[in-house]
Amino acid sequence: MENYLSLFHLEKKRKYGRLSKGEKLKCQFAFALSHDAKLLILDEPAGNFDPDFRGQFFQILKGFIQDGTRSIILATHITEDLDCMADYIVYLENGNQMFAGDIEELRQRYQMVSGEAYKIRLLAPEQVIHLEERQYGAKALIAHSRFKQYDESLAVSDPTIEELMYFYAKRSTTSVQGGGKGMQL
C-alpha cells in the first residue's frame, strides 16, 4: 500500500479524516489495489480527481485489467470515462436494462448520421432510433447494417457512448415516421 500512497502523493502518516475528498478517494483506491483484488467495483470513481491524477488513474486501471485475469465494474455518468475504458457496457434506464454487450459490437450495429433532415428521413423508418433537427442540419442514431449504403451527402460515424445513450433515451419522446424502436442486443 505504501507504494500506491507514494505514487498518489499521499502522506502515509496523515490521518484519514484530515484528507480532502479527492485524497480520500485516492487512499481508498490505493487500499483496493494493494490487496491484489480480482474485481474492482467503482461507483463514480473519478468525479473528484484533479485532471492530472484523473489521467494517471485511468492508466492504472488499464494496467490492472491488462493481463485479462482481473476486471472492473465501473458505474459512472461520465461517458468519456467509458469511451476510454469499456470493453462491455450495460445501459440502465430507470433501473431497467436497455442494452448490454461488447462496445465494439454496439458501435458496429449503430451509427450516427449527420446532414440534411430530409435525407435522413429517406432512410427506412425502423432504422432511425432518434432524429434530432438543429438549425444547420440534423443528426440521428440509426440501426446499421454493414451492407447498407448511405447517401454520400450524409456524414456517417461511430457513435460515442454518450451519443448512444442520449439518442437512445430520446427515442420514445419523438420518433421518425413510426421508427425509434429496436435497440436491443
Can you describe what's shown?
The chain is of the alpha+beta class and 185 residues long. It has 2 domains: 2-86, P-loop containing nucleotide triphosphate hydrolases (Rossmann fold, 3-Layer(aba) Sandwich); 105-170. It is 35% helix and 25% strand. The chain is built from 7 helices and 8 strands, in the order ααβαβαββαβαβββα. The protein has helices spanning 2-7, 21-34, 51-65, 79-85, 103-109, 117-121, 161-170; strands at residues 39-43, 71-75, 88-93, 96-102, 110-115, 128-134, 137-143, 155-157. The strands form 3 sheets. It has a 4-stranded antiparallel sheet with strand order 6-7-5-8. A two-stranded parallel sheet has the order 1-2. The longest helix has 15 residues, at 51-65. 18% of the residues are buried. Residues 174-185 have low confidence and may be disordered.
Summarize the structure.
By secondary structure, this protein is of the alpha+beta class. It is built from seven helices and eight strands, in the order H-H-E-H-E-H-E-E-H-E-H-E-E-E-H.
Provide key terms for this protein.
Rossmann fold, 35% helix, 185 residues, disordered C terminus, alpha+beta
